[in-house]
Amino acid sequence: MPRVKASPVDRLLPLSLPIFHMLLELTEGERHGYALKRSILSRTQGKLNLGSGALYGSINRMLEEGLIEESGERPDPHLDDERRRYYRITTLGRRAIQAEAVRLRDLVRLAESRVQLPEPA
Amino acid sequence: MPDLPKLYSWLLKLYPAGFREEYQAAMDRQFRDEYREARGRAGRLRLLLNAGWDLITTAPAETARELTQDLKYCIRLYRGRSASAAFAVAALGLAIGASTGVFSVLNALLLRSLPFSDPAQLVELWKSPVGAGNGRAAFTAWQARNPYLRSAAAFSASEMNLTGQRDAMRVKVAETSANFFELLGTKASGGRTFTPDEDLPGHTGVAVISHSLWQQWFGGVPGVTGASLVLNGAPVTVIGVAPPRFDYPGNTGIWIPSVFDFEMTPKRGAFLFQTIGRLKPGIYIDQARRLFDAEVRRSDPRSVSAGEPNRARMVSLRNQLAGSVREASWILAGMVLFVLLTACANVAQLLLSRTMERRQELEIRAALGASPARLAQQLITEATALTAAGAAIGLIVAHWAAVVATSVAPPQLAAQAYTVLDWRVLGFSAGLALSIAVVFGGMPAWLVGGLHPSGQITRTRRMRAGLVALQAALTLTLLTSAVAMGRTFLRLLDTDLGLRPANVVTLSASLQGTRYRSGAAQWQYYSEALNRLRAVPGVEAAGAVSHLPLANDVYMANAVKLDSGQTVPQIVMNAATPDYFRALGTALLAGRDFGLGELRHAEPAVIVNEAFAQTAGLGTAIVGRRITAPWSDRKYLIVGVVATTRLAGPTHAGAPQIYWPVEEEPPPALTLVARVHGQADKFLAACEHALRAVDSEVAVYDVKTLDQRLADVLARPRFYTTATLFLAALAVLLAAIGTYGAAAYSVARRKREMGLRMALGASYLRIRHMIVRDSLAPIGVGMAAGIASAVASGRYLESLVVDAHPVDRWTCTAGAGLLLLAGLAAAWSATTRVLTIDPADALRVQ
């Protein structure tokens, strides 16, 4: 039986929830760590509150896997003039988030065909 | 509220160095931002709790990730250097293994609990002021008013004949007071132990048997209580089985509560009463000892001042049981520590040269922003990986070391299996490995701390030279000790024992509890036994004696009066038959041997040994003189002088002895000695069979060749000598490898300089000489220190080992010469690489 070789993107799936959120956030543009945390917090209505360790641990992993890259240091115009490290999503990161979304969509479709889902509020 | 941002910043140290380096600043800043934004005390508290939870959940994962990375890197790095890494690991493994093995023995001897409850409170009294010999009432009264002992038990151990359903056998029996088991805190594993009144004379016909006797005699079948045994002819009923491992005092098979019952078992001959006690709560052994000494001084002032071995004293039971093995184990522990340090020096060399080779890489990483902490973490991880591998090998080695150690364990502790899988032993091994990793991983890390290339090279060179010197000093100390021990052992082998051990079969027979009660009946049995033995084909001569040399017996010594009025003290009394001396190979120096019908002579005869004759100051002229026996007022004629035999083996001087003819007063047990044509071990079965054929009721035991007995006596010194020589050889090998490594590294590092010298006309030989000379210099320095430490350790050795050969000038010279030769060979072979240097290439090296 021929073995199906996993593509580099498939190898990364499924993405963890914090990573998925962070990548989603980065599709909007470059962000620094704290900004990522805040926007995820507000988008999830306070449900996903990433601690610093979890936040930078995930960033570290994404950097290692090539999902994001550093875009250099510069001051945050919204906060103060302290210099912060900014990150941007890579092509691999975009493909990963796409693949994860497709995976989730397929999963949702499967669930819909089996069980009755309530209408979204 | 305390300064939370500062506290958080401090807690971030829990993350690994690499992670901290990247994100600490951002995390700090973020916490400060959130802290500013937090509302009220509750908000800040929630922030702190969240941060704490985050830390607990993510720091271990990040640490594991980084360690995995470091390890992978480490494996890649050492794959190309597998030979030297494997060697360092193997050496470390051997050293850790040897230390762990020795520790497991020390652990069993000194640290782990004995099969008694609260053993630290147990003491043994040598020459108790009141003992079992004073009778039950006196002993109980003494115990009741004793100010330092909560309770005391008396016992006396001897070998007895066990008969009954099976072939008679010889077993060690402890006659005890009824509270013996209660005092030790030992409960029967089946049945019961003694009740308080069972040591009253007339009530003592009960016995507790050991677990191993239960297995051996009853085949381990349950329901053994109520079974009867016959001990020296007296019937006893089994009431219980002792727990496995319990055989105190040493190898006891049966305990009977008859220590005060002088009718129950005939107590004749060398009968020693012993007393053990449990200290009162809150009394320490030192206090108890002072009270004991004071008591002894009041009751029997002489016994305190008596010569060392017979002095009255109180010892802790644990020390008493560990005995001489304790000292020897400490020596071994010291030696193993030296080997361990030598092995560590090699690992340090390896790590140092690896660090220097990677200097460029480390410098680049530092330049790219890697913090010293990050680099140090990497280096310590490497060292930990190396030592962990070493420790794993070490546990295997330790297992074997413990197996070997068990074979030389003192009999009292033979039941205490030495085990490596004990939390103390494992903890020791892990602790050892970890401290080695921190110290020797930390050393190169410290070097990296100040990455100033030029200063670092000098520092490294000094450090390497220091390591080689350290190895040389340690190795020389070990070598001289090993040589001294080896010479001591050779001298033991060479000692004239006063007998010829080859081609001799020995076997013992005991008539206790048999139908041979009168002296005449016993003599008849012995004569018949000797005749049967002489009839075995191949037996050249046969005789018998009550105390055979090398038999590990207990002897009674008496003072004997000579007809001149002179008293010769400390004489060992022994009974012998005609032909005993010929069978043993002991030379008759003057006079005659005993003959048959010795009782027909008008005057009873004795034979003395040379040591007696010399102590009396008469030499062989003592033949024809008379002595007065210590046991009666009869006069005995000295008819012969024989060579002195060393009763306790080559480590003990031969005692003055008097032999009386067995025929005159046959002892209850004798050891028969047969000199045979050919290998003695082939005659063991035939001789035993011949003896059993005389009467199957008589216990025949200890059937051994004399060579075996000698080997048994020498087993322990042989083991220690072999271990010492092995450790010293290992140390020399490690030191040679250390020197090789240092020299090879020096060749690699100075390639350019050598190329230049060659270009300027220096020959290969000259350059090799230069490197060898530089490599040997630290060895010389180390040896100077080593000689001082060798002399000191030699003194220590002499204080611990009886008759130890001193560490003298000869020993030091030999050790130093050997070490220098090893160093020279190592350095010379390391410089073969010089031959491959092409000056033109070398000059291009940066």
Write the layout of secondary structure elements.
The complex is a heterodimer of chains A (121) and B (846).
Chain A: H1 8-12, H2 17-26, E1 31-32, H3 33-43, H4 52-65, E2 68-75, E3 83-89, H5 91-114
Chain B: H1 4-11, H2 17-37, H3 40-79, H4 82-111, E1 122-126, H5 136-144, E2 149-163, E3 169-176, H6 180-184, E4 190-191, E5 206-209, H7 211-218, E6 228-231, E7 234-241, E8 254-256, E9 274-279, H8 285-299, H9 301-305, E10 313-316, H10 317-357, H11 359-367, H12 372-407, H13 423-449, H14 453-494, E11 504-510, H15 519-535, E12 539-545, E13 557-562, E14 567-576, H16 580-584, E15 588-591, E16 605-609, H17 610-615, E17 626-628, E18 635-642, E19 657-661, E20 669-676, H18 684-694, E21 699-705, H19 706-749, H20 751-759, H21 764-800, H22 809-830, H23 839-844
Parallel strand pairs in B: 3-8, 5-7, 14-19, 16-18
Antiparallel strand pairs in B: 1-9, 1-10, 2-3, 2-6, 2-9, 4-7, 5-8, 6-7, 11-20, 11-21, 12-20, 13-14, 13-17, 15-18, 16-19, 17-18
Helix pairs in contact in B: 1-2, 2-3, 3-12, 4-10, 4-12, 4-13, 10-13, 10-14, 10-19, 12-13, 14-19, 14-21, 14-22, 15-18, 19-21, 19-22, 21-22
Note the main attributes of this structure.
heterodimer, A: alpha+beta, 3-stranded antiparallel sheet, 3 strands, B: 846 residues, alpha+beta, 6-stranded mixed barrel, 23 helices
